[in-house]
């Protein structure tokens, strides 16, 4: 069992403190001193915790109000996962990125939540540093350290020296064991292929097309090997956080289906390792929906078939929402929502076949999407 604490926040304190003492350009132009609260303590995740409520979200603009933290806190999750675009960093200047993390850290609701609820995270493009970026982002190594400082990962952690921010944690006793797998869909990702019609010269991202090149990757070989090991370990429920959508394949922006070989490889790996209990969570889209890819009655074990129903619960945005947009998704269950939201996975372990509830909730904590299933469906 991998033990870890996310309460080692010395590195983060240094980083945050460093930001607040960054010199102004000159004493004449220094802004008036601001009252900035010191870094708050963060809750630690116990390896013995039996998780029954895991909340998550994505797309939090650090310079806009973030009232959603209170609704999340009201649900009393035992773990909160930030799964990308946790800030809108969008810079190759690490001082800018660190300043924006500090802005998020100073949000009262975020502080309150993370003082009582452990936080784990992965990143997406905007906190990575550049819209829709992949391995070609020149500051990826530096950005990784800023991200790990924000998460208060110890300077001695192996996460400091390996490339990418992927991570996994498993907690709880046998029979009620929850594994959290946080994928890094940025650090190693091959360049995106422009779709047709590409907005020539517009500089705008997307639409993107599927890249069938065998060399094209999302996770990169090192992360694939690591994921293979993770899926061999024992767990009853595996929450797999991917910043981008896995199941929704029709939308033209970032998604696993831009790399269909990688998408099939993930299904194939879950099948080959007999990894039961996988639930995927995703973000990035500024909308929320629940997708489910059910195996068809076609030849069992086909590469593009999931081994069992794969749910992909997309929650976006915590506060960086957008207007309504019509999008086809044949795998969608129910409606799509564009108002600020967060995701909530509840597990009732008291029944012989654990009962799971997948939800998207509004800024008032109101359920927008709700789907019930039994754990035996995921095997
Ligand atoms: Fe994104």
| Assembly type | single chain
- Shape annotation: globular
Heterogens? fe (ii) ion
Please identify the structural class as seen in this structure. alpha/beta
Estimate percent helicity: 10-25%
Largest sheet: 7 strands, mixed
Q: What is the CATH topology assignment?
A: Purple Acid Phosphatase, chain A, domain 2
Which regions are unreliable across 5 or more consecutive residues at pLDDT < 50?
A: 1-33
Mean pLDDT: 90
**First and last CA, distance:** 22 Å
Q: Strand order, biggest sheet?
A: 4-5-8-9-11-10-12
**For this structure, what is the CATH class?**
Alpha Beta
β content, as a range?
15-25%
Topology:
Layout: H1 10-20, E1 53-57, H2 68-74, E2 79-82, H3 94-105, H4 108-116, E3 119-121, H5 125-128, H6 140-150, E4 167-171, E5 178-182, E6 193-194, E7 208-209, H7 220-232, E8 237-241, H8 260-272, E9 278-282, E10 288-293, E11 310-314, E12 332-337, E13 341-348, E14 355-362, E15 367-374
Parallel strand pairs: 1-2, 2-3, 5-8, 8-9, 9-11
Antiparallel strand pairs: 1-13, 4-5, 6-7, 10-11, 10-12, 13-14, 14-15
The structure holds fe (ii) ion.
């Amino acid at each position: 069992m991998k033990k870890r604490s996310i309460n080692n926040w010395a590195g983060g304190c240094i980083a945050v403190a460093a930001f607040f003492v960054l010199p102004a350009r000159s004493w004449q132009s220094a802004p008036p001193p601001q009252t900035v609260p010191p870094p708050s303590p963060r809750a630690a995740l116990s390896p013995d915790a039996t998780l029954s409520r895991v909340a998550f979200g994505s797309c939090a603009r650090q310079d806009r109000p973030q009232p959603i933290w209170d609704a999340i806190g009201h649900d009393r999750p035992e773990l909160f996962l930030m799964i990308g675009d946790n800030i809108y960093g969008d810079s190759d200047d690490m001082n800018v990125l660190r300043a924006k993390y500090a802005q998020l850290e100073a949000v009262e609701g975020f502080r309150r939540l993370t003082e009582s609820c452990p936080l784990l995270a992965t990143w997406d493009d905007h906190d990575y540093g550049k819209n829709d970026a992949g391995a070609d982002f020149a500051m990826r190594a530096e950005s990784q350290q800023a991200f790990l400082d924000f998460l208060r990962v110890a300077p001695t952690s192996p996460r400091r020296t390996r490339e990418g921010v992927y991570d996994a944690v498993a907690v709880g006793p046998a029979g009620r064991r929850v594994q959290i797998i946080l994928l890094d869909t940025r650090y190693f990702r091959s360049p995106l292929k422009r779709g047709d019609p590409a907005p020539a010269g517009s500089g705008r991202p997307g639409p993107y097309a599927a890249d069938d090149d065998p060399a094209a990757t999302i996770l990169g070989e090192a992360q694939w090997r690591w994921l293979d090991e993770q899926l061999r370990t024992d767990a009853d429920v595996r929450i797999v956080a991917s910043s981008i959508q896995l199941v929704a394949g029709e939308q033209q922006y970032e998604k696993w289906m831009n790399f269909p070989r990688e998408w099939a490889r993930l299904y194939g790996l879950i099948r080959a390792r007999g990894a039961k209990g996988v639930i995927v969570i995703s973000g990035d889209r500024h909308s929320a929906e629940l997708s489910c890819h059910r195996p068809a009655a076609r030849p069992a074990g086909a590469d593009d078939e999931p081994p069992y129903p794969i749910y992909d619960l997309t929650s976006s945005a915590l506060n960086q929402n957008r207007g309504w947009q019509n999008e086809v998704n044949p795998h969608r269950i129910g409606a799509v929502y564009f108002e600020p939201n967060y995701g909530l996975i509840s597990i009732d372990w008291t029944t012989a076949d654990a009962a799971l509830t997948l939800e998207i909730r509004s800024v008032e904590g109101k359920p927008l999407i709700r789907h019930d299933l039994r754990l035996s469906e995921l095997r």
